[in-house]
Amino acid sequence: METSELVFVDLETTGGVAQRDRITEIAVIRTSQGQEVSRWSSLVNPQQPLTPFIQRLTGLTDEMLANAPTFDEIADEVERQLADAVFVAHNARFDYGFLKNEFRRIERSWHARNLCTVKLSRAMYPEHRKHGLDQLITRHDLSCSARHRAMGDAAATLMFYQHLLNEFGTERVTEQIAKLILRPTIPPNLPSDVLDSLPTSPGVYRFWGEQGALLYVGKSINIYQRVTSHFQDDHRLHKSQQLSLQVFDIDYSQTAGDLGAQLLELQQIKTLKPIHNRRSRAAKELKTIRLKQNEHGYLCASIEHHIDMADLAAHYGLFKTKKEAEKALNGLIKSYQLCPSLCGLEQTQGACFKAQLGQCKGACEQKEQALAYNTRVTLAMQGLKLKSWPWEGPIGIREHDSFSDIRQFHVIWQWCHLITLNDEQEFYDWLPEQAPEPSFDRDCYQLLQRYLFGGKSKPDVVVLPNWSVT
Domain named GIY-YIG: which ranges (predicted)? Predict the structure, then answer.
């Protein structure tokens, strides 16, 4: 893949939301075979005032921009400067997204292969945790004549690239860049401009086939990147190739973050039943395991289909079928020498079959003490035990994507996703008569477990007033 022509780009803007804010300065440095060939920059009249924060950060003022050209006046020159080259920027999503929106405002389509030097730094220096431009300048002893000005930051990004060439060599750096900018193969039945219209923000995407058949629903924190990845692999993977041949259209729904994307994906897979989605389809009736003591004081397991959401800690495991639950029990019986009869898998009077083989310690005949057997059962079941809802009432989880300025407020109760609203105030306008009855779902339970308690970042949780929804 040809990557010899690169344009290093940096923008200054009135804020961080591409749909609302505007470009105030643009700088482009073109290189060929690693050598600089030209520089170009321009101030841009954003047609909106700068905030005091932006003025302090960049040193730009409204007066400096008042007589600068507007973007539509320099759009031809911008496109010429960026033509026939890989678009390179530090946090490319930001700069690339702003340029796409500026071109969209003047009803022009623009697209380029783009390379994010944050991702390039992570690939080349995986031992480091932070890859911001300030960290790269300090770590690699780069110079920056004017931080937070377009040409200064573009030049620092170019210096980082040249540093990589010196340290790792042209061949290795070029190979890594080729991996990061691998061009997708456009499906033969898909209009060429569809991929260009996809946002680089979080959300759900849908592949549609001929005559409106829904083929596939997926989610990502970067819709454009994830969709194109399907078609980058289509020549190697049979499933991807078959899907690519069937796609006639793609649409999407943007969300405020990863949680919103995952919740919407789950909901749409279960309700719309896309042809190629299998894993997350709703089970007709979940099965679970419960324990209770028999008349001799031994804990007995039974497979049940009723799940008491108010007492989830009394349930062990969530299974789509009875066979799946029986398989789990058989594994525990073997690992912990439990009794198949007391686990409900044998209907026998007296000794079970494994007791006759010496593989059961005789709880079925009361030969093993109940306390010893029950301790082993409790230990065996611990990994399957469900977690009770830890709050007294519902919670809201806030998400905000600063790039698209989308905000969402997800209302959760007893591990069930009730509704997604725009903000917390909508919740108070909405409850309680509109509250749907909670419907327990295994995938949603596992998703919320991971999101609330399994991640590195702390979710923005709001404890909401308790109210009955059943």
Answer: 200-278
